[in-house]
Amino acid sequence: MEGKAAINTVQTPEAGIGKRMRKFFISVSDLSAFTLRFVKEAFTPKYEIYEFIKQAYLVGYQSFPLVAITGFIMGLVLTIQSRPTLAQFGAESWLPAMVAVSIVREIGPVITALIFAGKVGSGIGAELASMKVTEQIDAMEVSGANPFKYLVVTRTLATTLMLPVLVVASDGISLFGAYVGCNLKGDVSFKLFFLQVFDKLTFSDVFPATIKTFFFGLAVGLIACYKGYNSNKGTAGVGESANASVVYGSLCIFIIDMIAVQFTSLFN
Amino acid sequence: MKNTTGNKVKVGIFVTVSLALFTVAIYLIGQRQQLFSDAFHISAVFKDIGGLQGGNNVRFSGINVGIVEDIEQITDSTVRINMRIGKATQKFIKKNARATIGSDGLMGNKIVVISPGTADNRVVADNDQLNAFQAVSMDEIMAKIKVTADNAAVITGGLASIVGNISEGRGTIGKLFMDTVFAKNIDNSLINIKQGTKGFKQNMDAAGNSFLLRGFFKKKNKEKEQKNKDK
Fold it and tell me: Would you give the distance in Å from CA A52 to the centre of its chain?
């Protein structure tokens, strides 16, 4: 009998793939329901303003130093790396414009969002998962509070609204890094650098890049909250939720970025 | 963590600074496109705009004063470009100003260049149409360069044939440069001339000493001395 039971538990590869596909579609369905619930809860009173501000402080303000350092290095390195190629064409004077377009359109939003997913996504995922496994969320429900509104809506709104702010700050610091990079081997005045930067930037560079950061923030917040809120494997699930929040959050950033670039090119 | 007033202030400052940065960036970009300043519109009609696009710069006296707002095809061979120019420049652009399509550097974007016009003309008004000067296109330049290159090929072909003849010793110049027998003949001739003139000098000296011609030479010498004295 024991031998028969053991044979029954061995799965064929096809059955494994089928099971994984089933799990994937269930996750997509749950995440969609979770997103709809978020939208519904976000627009119905009562609003958790103070908790939202606290989360804005945690996810926005406290992420700023990390984002600022990354942004500065990004601008500096991109400038130093681009210089030799442009110098081959005798187009070094195009360096500020080229770096500015790269930073504002793509590198600033995406790198900042990835850093944000790493720092904030894992934090939210782990925090909510540990609340779930220690039954704090259940306790909130029992006491009549709405844990979804208090935990998920505030955090997701904070990530959605704070990431664009962080990206704007990061872009500014990156451009300063690019200015420093330009002056390491060349000599460009501060005024000339920023005149060249804003001469080549257009609204079609700035607005789509800013709008997509709201979606990046929404994706990072929603996925982290979903993974944390639905954690169910005890303490092991906490680590798993934190990890999944970062991995899927980062993946979603790239997918949204790809959709955004296609969408933007329709209007250009 | 407590939600202290200090934290709220920090979030507030952070958001305000970022929004201010964003606003300044938007203003600076908009300013280049004359969006936040008074502007007027002028147009020009071209046969070929050579890849000019909406948003390209309009330059007057080397300064970017506006942008190409839109481009419309009027007929099968004419295109109108509408330009948005800063109001501050209006007083310098005269009615007979000419618009040309140029290029911002060798590899740069296309631009519209406006020449000022003459001082005795009236200032351009809103929605006026400027005279367009169709600049020579790159294709036309290439066509002319091709004709020049063809001519150069014919000339260099002729020169090559002449140099070939010379190096093979054909023709007068070829013989002069390359024929060793010819050179030897010339050398011999020069030796003969040298010997001839030497003999002639001896004959003349003998004639001067002969009694028949002595009187004639003496007379010549006297005339010569007289001339020297007069000087």
Answer: 18
